[in-house]
Amino acid sequence: MSQLEPTAIPGPASQREAVSAQAFREVMCQLASGVTIITASLGDVPVGMTATAVCSVSAKPPMLFISLTAGSRTALGVEERKTFAVHLLPHTRQKYAEQFAAAGDHFADIGYRRDPATGVPILEDVLGYFLCEVERSVVVADHALFVGRVMQCAVKATGQTPLVYFDRAYGKVTPVAELHPVNPEHWAFDIGLPGWGVPT
Ligand SMILES: Cc1cc2nc3c(=O)[nH]c(=O)nc-3n(C[C@H](O)[C@H](O)[C@H](O)COP(=O)(O)O)c2cc1C
Q1: Strand, helix or coil at 40?
Q2: Which residues of the chain have pLDDT under 50?
Q3: Over the range 76-110, which residues count as b (16 or more CB within 10 Å of their CB) and which as e?
Q4: What tens digit of pLDDT does each residue of 33-88 get?
Q5: Which atom from ligand 1 is nearest to the alpha carbon of 51?
Q6: 52 CB within 6 A, ligand 1
Q7: Pocket of ligand 1 contains residue 144 by CB under 6 Å
Q8: Which residue's CA is the closest to the ligand 1 atom numbered 20?
Q9: Distance between CA 193 and CA 28 in Å, rounded?
Q10: Does the CB atom of residue 146 touch ligand 1 within 6 A?
Q11: Taking the C-alpha atoms of 29, 62, 128 and 35 in order, what is their torsion angle to the nearest 10 degrees?
Q12: pTM of the complete model
């Protein structure tokens, strides 16, 4: 893949399979996702975006997968330098998510350092990060998919809840045990099993 040009995908074999983009999005927004910031370097300029399309691929060797809009500056940076970093956000960093998804300078007032070997920006105040080298890439429709081999990773904070994105809104995770402190078997309340206490 030398250029990140969108590729044409043939239509479905039958009309029965046709699903509109709107219908697809309506269901997809019911998938709760952890929010990340993906960073790279484009002509030595730091680039980065808010992304939820991140997935573990394998632990041996450690690999993960990201999906970026093909024309985005971040995708172009990943394609150019074949390296990128994925940062996991705590719920206290919603500002990062908003800033890296908006127009303007994504790095304004954000603390970061450049990885000395690759130039990839490594952000401060995150739950953890992965620094990756591109192992495989392919353009599908209008997205560039990159499989990255993890060259470095670290947990930077523990005991903080992650920032999540669900139904087009930011939120944070509340452990079920906190919602139902009397009885950890929370499902028992919903189906009315006898002998279980009332949730507080
Ligand atoms: C919650 C959230 C998740 C997003 N996830 C992705 C994603 O996984 N892939 C993607 O290409 N864009 C995603 N975006 C959109 C990009 O963050 C946005 O287009 C960004 O401005 C692109 O920056 P760039 O063109 O400077 O690279 C997401 C936006 C939000 C608000």
Answers
A1: strand
A2: 1-2, 188-189, 192, 195-200
A3: bbbbebbbbbbbbbbbebbebbebbeeeeebbeeb
A4: 999 999 999 999 999 999 999 999 999 999 999 999 999 999 999 999 999 999 99
A5: 5
A6: yes
A7: no
A8: 101
A9: 33
A10: no
A11: -10
A12: 0.88
Beta bridge partners of 134: 148
| 104-111: long-range pairs with CB below 8 Å, 24+ | 106/46, 106/47, 106/48, 106/49, 107/46, 107/48
pLDDT of residue 178: 79
User: Using CA positions, which residue lies closest to atom 22 of ligand 1?
Assistant: 49
Name the strand (E) or helix (H) holding 190. helix 187-190
The residue whose two tokens read 């450049």 is 114
82/66 Cα distance (integer angstroms): 13
Strands 112-114 and 83-88: unpaired
Query: Ligand 1, from 67, 68, 72: best to mutate by most atoms within 8 Å of Cβ?
Result: 72
Pocket test for ligand 1, best of 52, 64, 76, 166 (most atoms within 8 A of CB): 52
